[in-house]
Amino acid sequence: MSELCRRGRELLQELKSYDRFTLSPFNEEIIRLIFQEIEEHDGLTKEIVAKFRQQQENIDDPVYDGVVATTLCAHYESIKRNKRCLLIYMAERMERLKAFRWELRRLPEDQASRCCPQELQFYSEYDKVLTSYMSKEEGVGMDLTLDCVPPKDSLVTVRGLRDIGERIFSFGAVQISRGGLFHLPLDEAEPLIRAGDVAQVQWSSGFL
């Protein structure tokens, strides 16, 4: 048996090495080995318990065996730790998938390729539920993914990153060109920012 819970630690360290908008490739091999280790601990635990019970049957006054108790605790705690590592791994990946929907409004193709089939199904169903909840027909009739961070100003200055042509805003039409500066309502600029068409200009002391 390998070093206790080493693979569970490696699995979490691998995921932690990526930023919150990047998934590590779903590591099916390490997960398989962790389940195998859990089964090994479980099998050894059952063997120890069976052997200990057999020994105690021939004794009128059962004796506490510290070595057996310590060994059982080590196996049991290893099983629990491996399970916790797996649960943390899956929970964190699910949180990142939800963050894609809330902040990017989509699951990028390069990230989808890092998911297992069950994760893709989770994202698809989560997307449907959230879209339905925000719709006028079935929900609140409001895009809740806007303004995830409270704005300091209702208008923002953005710089064009691509020539995307004319776009219609609440105040009229604007020709978005690469390198141009535009003053737009924040809620209407956010989709363009997230799509990479424009970038918000961060002002410092009133200057670029």
Automatic annotation (TrEMBL):
<comment type="similarity">
    <text>Belongs to the GINS1/PSF1 family.</text>
</comment>
<feature type="domain" description="GINS subunit">
    <location>
        <begin position="47"/>
        <end position="136"/>
    </location>
</feature>
<dbReference type="GO" id="GO:1902983">
    <property type="term" value="P:DNA strand elongation involved in mitotic DNA replication"/>
</dbReference>
<dbReference type="InterPro" id="IPR036224">
    <property type="entry name" value="GINS_bundle-like_dom_sf"/>
</dbReference>
<dbReference type="Pfam" id="PF05916">
    <property type="entry name" value="Sld5"/>
</dbReference>
<dbReference type="GO" id="GO:0000811">
    <property type="term" value="C:GINS complex"/>
</dbReference>
<keyword id="KW-0539">Nucleus</keyword>
<dbReference type="InterPro" id="IPR021151">
    <property type="entry name" value="GINS_A"/>
</dbReference>
<keyword id="KW-0235">DNA replication</keyword>
<dbReference type="InterPro" id="IPR005339">
    <property type="entry name" value="GINS_Psf1"/>
</dbReference>
<protein>
    <recommendedName>
        <fullName>GINS subunit domain-containing protein</fullName>
    </recommendedName>
</protein>
